[in-house]
Design a protein that fits this description.
Blueprint: E1 2-10, E2 13-22, E3 25-31, H1 37-46, E4 55-56, E5 61-66, E6 71-75, H2 76-81, H3 89-101, H4 109-114, E7 126-128, E8 135-138, H5 145-149, E9 156-165, E10 171-181, E11 185-196, E12 200-211, E13 216-227, H6 242-245, E14 251-260, H7 267-275
Antiparallel strand pairs: 1-2, 2-3, 3-5, 4-9, 5-6, 6-7, 8-14, 9-10, 10-11, 11-12, 12-13, 13-14
Length: 276
C-alpha cells in the first residue's frame, strides 16, 4: 500500500493530487481551483443551462481504478449532466413558492421553468473502463453500516468538493464526495445537499462499499426531503448541517445495486475462443 501526493500553487490556491494504492486498486483524489468564468460560460452553453453553480470545481475528481482498467469516478461535470433529468414536481412547486417569497428576485419565472436552479442531481458516479466494464444489477443486499462503525484503522481519507452555490443568498446547493480506506475495505459517500431557506431541505446520498476479496461493490442511493414547514420541531441551527439534519428528513427513495467486476480472460481462454 502506498500514498503519493503532489501539490502545485496556482493563483495562490494550493492544488493537490493524492494517489493511494491498496491491492489491485488505486484511489486518486484531485483538488484544484474553481473553474474560470469563461470556461463556466462555455460549459453552460454546451449543457444548454442558463447558469451553472458559482463555485464549480470542474477538475476535482475522486477516482477508484482497478489495475485491469475498470472502476468508478466522481466529478462535477457528470453530476451536473444529471440535473435536467430529474422529473420532480416538488421542485416546480418550490420554485413558485420561493419566487413568491422573493418578488424582488432577479430570477424570472421563465428561467425557473427553463432549468432547475437548485442543481438537484441524482448522480451516482461515472463507470470507467473500455474493454472491461462493471455490471450494475439491482440487489437486496445492503451495506452493513454496523460493520462500518467498528473502529478500524483509516489508512487513507479524502473529501473532495465538486460544486457549491448559495442560490443568491437564499440557501445552498452543494455536492461533495469523501472516501475512507481501511485495511480490508473502502467506504465512499457522495452527498448532494440542498437547502432553500424557508422552503425545503433535500439530501441525495450515494454510498459505495467494497470488501477486499469480493468481486463486487455495493451502491446505495437514497433521497431524503422535507419542507421546512414540517421541521418545526427541529432546532433551525441544524438546518445548515447535513450530518445533523439528515436524521430528521423522511426517506423518499432507496435503490440498492451490486456493481460486479468483470472477469479478465486468461490467455488460455483467449486462445481457445480465437480457435473456435
Amino acid at each position: 500500500m502506498s500514498t503519493k501526493m503532489s501539490t502545485t500553487m496556482s493563483h495562490g490556491f494550493k492544488s493537490s493530487k493524492q494517489d493511494f494504492t491498496f491491492g489491485p486498486w488505486k484511489v486518486t483524489a484531485a483538488r484544484t481551483h474553481i473553474m474560470k468564468s469563461k470556461d463556466i460560460e462555455r460549459l453552460a452553453e454546451e449543457m444548454h443551462m442558463p447558469s451553472l453553480p458559482e463555485m464549480l470545481f470542474g477538475d476535482n475528481v475522486l477516482r477508484i481504478l482497478h489495475s485491469d482498467g475498470y472502476g468508478i469516478e466522481f466529478n462535477a461535470i457528470d453530476a451536473l449532466k444529471r440535473v435536467n433529468n430529474m422529473q420532480d414536481s416538488v421542485k416546480v412547486a418550490c420554485a413558485q413558492e420561493w419566487q413568491e417569497s422573493r418578488a424582488d428576485s432577479e430570477h424570472s419565472k421563465e428561467v425557473v421553468k427553463r432549468y432547475d436552479w437548485t442543481y438537484t442531481t441524482d448522480y451516482r458516479g461515472t463507470l470507467l473502463g473500455e474493454d472491461l466494464k462493471i455490471k450494475v444489477t439491482p440487489t437486496a443486499e445492503r451495506i452493513d453500516m454496523e460493520k462500518l462503525k467498528a473502529r478500524e484503522q483509516i489508512m487513507f481519507f479524502e473529501d473532495v468538493l465538486l460544486f457549491e452555490d448559495e442560490l443568491h443568498d437564499h440557501g445552498v446547493s452543494m455536492i461533495s464526495v469523501k472516501i475512507r480506506v481501511m485495511p480490508t475495505s473502502f467506504f465512499l459517500l457522495l452527498r448532494f445537499f440542498l437547502r432553500v431557506d424557508g422552503v425545503l431541505i433535500r439530501i441525495n446520498d450515494t454510498r459505495l462499499y467494497h470488501e477486499a476479496g469480493k468481486n463486487y461493490m455495493l451502491r446505495e442511493f437514497s433521497t431524503r426531503e422535507s419542507r421546512i414547514s414540517e421541521l418545526q420541531h427541529v432546532p433551525p441551527a441544524l438546518y445548515t448541517d447535513p450530518n445533523e439534519i439528515a436524521q430528521y428528513l423522511p426517506l423518499k427513495l432507496t435503490e440498492c445495486e451490486k456493481l460486479e467486476f468483470p472477469e479478465k480472460e486468461t490467455e488460455a481462454e483467449t486462445t481457445e475462443s480465437s480457435q473456435q
